[in-house]
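Subject: two folds for Thursday's group meeting

Dear M.,

Sorry for the delay on this. The cluster queue was jammed most of the week, so I only got both jobs back this morning. I'm pasting them in the order they finished. Each block is the input sequence followed by the predicted structure tokens. Could you check whether the formatting survives your parser before we put anything on slides? The first protein is the one we discussed after the seminar.
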Amino acid sequence: MRAVVQRVDGASVVVDGRTTGEIAGEGLCVLVGVTHDDTTAKAAQLARKLWSLRILDGEKSCSDVGAPLLVVSQFTLYGDARKGRRPTWNAAAPGPVAEPLVDEVVEQLRELGAEVATGSFGAKMRVTLTNDGPFTVLLEV
């Protein structure tokens, strides 16, 4: 699994003109990509890492301050544009594999005590955020 993690001061996702997920104030906006060999164990590992990652103000984690997370599925994180001008998506897991694993990341975060908002899997989403810093980290588990 691959995640782009952004420290934010508010973020939201809109699908078809309707807000499907939103967090206010300090938190993390997390774009999650799934590849073919990912498992529920990797989803749990990613959730633990996100909950304890010390990138908030004062080197705190979401678990330290109860900060919310906005988790958005993002198959394009496994795009490959090394050849030519058009990316390929061969490394991205298909929807029936990826969707339950993104859901597992969200469920594991909630079990850890996190407040989690989400996008809508497979939908055309408009993600709006205020990157605080800016601060962006790429995680891979």
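Second protein, same layout:
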Amino acid sequence: MPMQATTTAPLFAAELTPHRSLTPRGLRIVIVLLAALAALPGLIFFSLGAWPVVAFMGLDVIAIAFALRTAMRREKRRQQLTLWSDRLELIATDTKGAIAKTQFNPNSVRLVIDRDFNERTTALRLRTNKGETEIGAFLTQDDKSSLAKAFGTALRKARG
């Protein structure tokens, strides 16, 4: 049975994004400062005739810049979780911008919460008879716990 779009307000809506501790501008500042700090001893080594040290210091700056840019690219992931009384919609965007849209029936989906030995939330999954889908894998433990509580309450409300 195809699911129809509703015009009512959703029971629950959340956009899940990874924590971004460094902005693109901040990334540029860090790379420039790192290059400047590497240039000072690099000039000293170059003047002493140890020019290979300068090359390796430059490679260090390039490697750190590459690692930071890769981490920034991973922060582009996001998931939109929207629950109406008749359907649950999950829209996931990966690091390359590809979008995957999945719809579930709220009556046939179950929220599975994985916890560690200290009862901290480690993973959240939506389980159906067709399989499982992890939600919020990039969230912190506190954010996962908060999401589980709020979304679990809304899911029970949608079923009732």
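Two things I noticed about the second structure. The two ends are 21 Å apart (CA to CA). The mean pLDDT is 88.

Cheers,
T.
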